[in-house]
Amino acid sequence: xxxxxxxxxxxxxxxxxxxxxxxxxxxxxxxxxxxxxxxxxxxxxxxxxxxxxxxxxxxxxxxxxxxxxxxxxxxxxxxxxxxxxxxxxxxxxxxxxxxxxxxxxxxxxxxxxxxxxxxxxxxxxxxxxxxxxxxxxxxxxxxxxxxxxxxxxxxxxxxxxxxxxxxxxxxxxxxxxxxxxxxxxxxxxxxxxxxxxxxxxxxxxxxxxxxxxxxxxxxxxxxxxxxxxxxxxxxxxxxxxxxxxxxxxxxxxxxxxxxxxxxxxxxxxxxxxxxxxxxxxxxxxxxxxxxxxxxxxxxxxxxxxxxxxxxxxxxxxxxxxxxxxxxxxxxxxxxxxxxxxx
Amino acid sequence: xxxxxxxxxxxxxxxxxxxxxxxxxxxxxxxxxxxxxxxxxxxxxxxxxxxxxxxxxxxxxxxxxxxxxxxxxxxxxxxxxxxxxxxxxxxxxxxxxxxxxxxxxxxxxxxxxxxxxxxxxxxxxxxxxxxxxxxxxxxxxxxxxxxxxxxxxxxxxxxxxxxxxxxxxxxxxxxxxxxxxxxxxxxxxxxxxxxxxxxxxxxxxxxxxxxxxxxxxxxxxxxxxxxxxxxxxxxxxxxxxxxxxxxxxxxxxxxxxxxxxxxxxxxxxxxxxxxxxxxxxxxxxxxxxxxxxxxxxxxxxxxxxxxxxxxxxxxxxxxxxxxxxxxxxxxxxxxxxxxxxxxxxxxxxxxxxxxxxxxxxxxxxxxxxxxxxxxxxxxxxxxxx
Lengths: 342, 385
Fold this sequence. Notes:
The complex is a heterodimer of chains A (about 350) and B (about 375). Chain A is α/β, with parallel strands linked by helices.
């Protein structure tokens, strides 16, 4: 296994919201709470969670698009949170992000060529315009478009093509690490498959490292080597993809995976559904944040917060009872028995 | 389950959409949104209508309930609801139909709930429309109350009450309208009952709340409550779980499944997610670029998809548990419907397309019992002759 390229330590992001008369009293939306994980060189690390779980906030903190409240982020051994000015710029050249909405992430008044060249210029990866143009041509082919497309404007492209352009633009600075923030959730399944294949190919060819953020569990399973499951700004479980999907150890992960609708009527299952809704980030539950929806919660869960502990080799779980609970294997994953138990 | 399916085979169609063509007039040109949609829903059946964005699934729904935008024009076709053509009805008749027999729930409940009225106010409005049902419910409540009281009362009192009950039961066919106070409490009870049916916790509190105070999943339950409040004969669910998280989506789907059994209603589920329909539908229709390209019973469709588009779509979904180094995708993207491809609209993306496909539009034919497909690769099950 490679050394970690990215190491996030106790990352916390609280958004302050004014409340009370004159906004004097302080209330916080605790979007991310003490999240720690590592991304190894060359792997795809998946972050999965429902809306409000903090997955996007984490991605943005890593690139310092928003300032973390506390915690450290080491990229190639350097603490990103302490970088300023030109150092930060140099670091960002190696880290790029692809956003969810390909309609909003491209400047409508810029041709594709100038968007690509601007990225290369500002990051200083090219010496002259001839070299820039050559690289732009190479990039646009690499993402499956052709050179004519360089002279067009974003509105002339479909969603899938725009996402290809966003990928080309991200690659223009020769990054080593890409944060993919829901890169396919705006796209239809047939186009989604094209983009996922493209990303996998690029990763293989260029030795890229990905942080793949998505709410779509099937997509995460397809793309990732390891997965971290987020709930209300906390990591609930972190392990290799096969383990998370076939033998989850956290009751939340278990419920989440069982809730995935599967395009196969033969796998119609009796599912154990989670009751209730995701609590507000303003008033996080005491103890384990999942306790009020957890079917196995005890008094201890209500008062004492479980830490993310490595219970098995490379398998971290934040649950007091991870070792005792028998959640059963996920049938849709192993495809052996006709029905899940419970 | 089995008996239910057998039943549905013999039952009559609730809805038949026949060769529906709809165009939109826009500044950029005429968008040929629907190009011959054919769809049948039998009594008590749940049918899924799936397709990617822009394939016309929501336009089909809007046409059925008569809510097409002003720049839309129905060029040809019929929408038969219990044998009557909805397209020939006046807007008043359509409005009455919508309020009594057809109900639709949309993706984003916040757009359809009134933000300045409480859930209770909006929900009781629905019940108030049906005067007869309201009056009957009020009468039943009075009878119930009298019965309870009679059990506890003394001899003389009881005879008096029993006489009153008898009198009330005689007018049951033409119940009198309740007074204002009585009406209010009856409406509240009815609203509470329907919310309980939606498995909403603490319905009393929710009735007093405004839509913004509810979560996405709860709002969607309120919308479904409003839709089924009048026991519609057909319920259309247009992408109702798309905006929700997986765990909440699973809850809403479970609710639909319960409603399907309890009310035995006919449901049309419109979605882009092949997973959602696999879970709950009896039959599935796949749309592409304005036409239904394949219809079959769900097990059949997922097990033996015939149309190259359906095949591609199913292969493009990342499957859990199957390690795939590469997903199969469909080349190209959805066509521009202002200038749709000639012949079969799928031919520019189809791996099997030949010369005929670009010239002639294939008809929807039945290749085996209940399995329809619109593709030149397949022949009708009984060749003529």
